[in-house]
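Retro notes (design track)

What went well: tokenization of the new backbones is finally stable.
What didn't: we kept losing track of which sequence belonged to which structure.
Fix going forward: every design gets posted as structure first, then sequence, in one message. First example under the new rule, 411 residues:
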């Protein structure tokens, strides 16, 4: 007997009640004390779940679903639990079961959390025994809510005793907050790790809590240099917008500037947020270099800028050029039509380089292609379209550059 449209609509509406957004359902928490377990204000949600639950980022089979993913703040012991008001009976839908949430999370993250909240709670008493791995590289304080909180950055590598096992838990945060992430090959000894901790005193005892971390890979640069590449950086949501990313990046830079074998520092596939962070950190140090003085900036980008930024700060030429453009905007009076026109033309000249190369390639093709082939090849942007595109790119850069200039003014 055929199922009518009305019946199908009713069935779809009924099943939609069992579809939950994974991003909303998952509640992550860093737990320092037993009281934190019941404090919902300390919960935060993942930004990405598609790598576990598919592109729709939905979980099927539950009503009013809540998944608890709790980490002890220092040791990173893990509790995984869930609650729901109803679980779908698989016989209602051709024996299609509800998603096995625990299986998906455990297999993807590669960890073995406890499902006993009592056990998790009892192990919190061990948190004050945790000591960060590696060498203390940098310490600083953040003033918030009327008091100063202390933070420390430690450096580790694959030979640091006990760190590899700890990293198995630490890296699980990446699945929730970095798009298209994958675990690194921990057997490769060219990896370096930088971990940020909050240092507090709880019940009269010092305690360290994870804030975030960064991985750096030491690539070989011919003939005798290395070119470290920043691979993954994460500051956990409870600590974001507090300056920890800048502190961590500055610590990494300072650590590598002391190494004469380092040519320069690069970044692997940076997000927009990281690009802005890097711009700010690099501008803050470059603005004190002689070649980046106000007088030099107004004369345009020079080889001296590229050289000084690389030799003294390990900043590569492409990034040095970007820093120059931001710092020149900083000293440009935008209300002065001539000054701002000179700045705009300077940036557009750089943006136009790919088009100039394309034009040169076209001249070569004119000599090599048949007329009909040349016509097909040259079917593309008109001159006016290119001008419009350059203006659009310039305006987009201005938005990003102004954010950095504003942050520099506040620092």
């Amino acid at each position: 007997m055929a199922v009518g449209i009305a019946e199908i609509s009713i069935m779809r509406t009924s099943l939609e009640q069992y579809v939950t957004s994974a991003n909303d359902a998952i509640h992550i928490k860093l737990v320092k004390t037993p009281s934190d377990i019941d404090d919902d204000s300390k919960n935060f949600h993942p930004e990405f779940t598609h790598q576990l639950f598919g592109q729709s980022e939905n979980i099927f089979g539950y009503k009013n679903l809540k998944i608890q993913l709790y980490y002890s703040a220092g040791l990173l012991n893990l509790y995984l639990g869930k609650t729901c008001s109803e679980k779908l009976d698989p016989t209602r839908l051709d024996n299609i079961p509800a998603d096995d949430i625990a299986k998906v999370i455990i297999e993807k993250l590669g960890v073995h959390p406890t499902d006993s909240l009592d056990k998790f709670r009892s192990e919190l008493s061990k948190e004050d025994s945790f000591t960060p791995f590696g060498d203390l590289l940098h310490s600083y304080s953040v003033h918030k809510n009327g008091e100063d909180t202390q933070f420390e950055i430690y450096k580790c590598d694959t030979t640091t005793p006990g760190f590899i096992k700890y990293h198995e838990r630490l890296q699980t945060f990446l699945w929730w907050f970095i798009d298209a992430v994958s675990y690194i090959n921990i057997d490769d000894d060219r990896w370096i790790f930088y971990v940020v901790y909050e240092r507090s005193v709880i019940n009269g005892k010092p305690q360290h809590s994870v804030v975030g971390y960064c991985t750096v890979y030491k690539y070989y640069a011919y003939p005798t240099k290395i070119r470290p590449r920043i691979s993954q950086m994460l500051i956990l949501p409870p600590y974001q917008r507090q300056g920890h990313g800048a502190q961590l990046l500055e610590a990494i830079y300072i650590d590598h500037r002391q190494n004469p074998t380092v040519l320069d520092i690069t970044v692997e596939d940076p997000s927009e947020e990281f690009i802005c962070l890097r711009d700010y950190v690099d501008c803050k140090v470059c603005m004190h270099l002689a070649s980046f003085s106000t007088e030099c900036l107004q004369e345009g980008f020079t080889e001296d800028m590229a050289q000084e930024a690389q030799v003294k700060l390990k900043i590569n030429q492409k990034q040095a050029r970007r820093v120059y453009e931001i710092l020149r905007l900083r000293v440009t009076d935008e209300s002065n039509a001539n000054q701002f026109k000179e700045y705009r033309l300077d940036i557009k000249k750089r943006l136009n380089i790919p088009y100039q190369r394309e034009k040169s390639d076209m001249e070569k093709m004119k000599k090599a292609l048949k007329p009909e082939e040349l016509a097909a090849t040259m079917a593309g942007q008109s001159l006016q379209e290119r001008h419009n595109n350059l203006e659009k790119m310039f305006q987009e850069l201005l938005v990003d550059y102004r954010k950095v200039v504003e942050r520099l003014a506040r620092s």
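Added context from the reviewer: Residues 58 and 402 are 38 Å apart (CA to CA).
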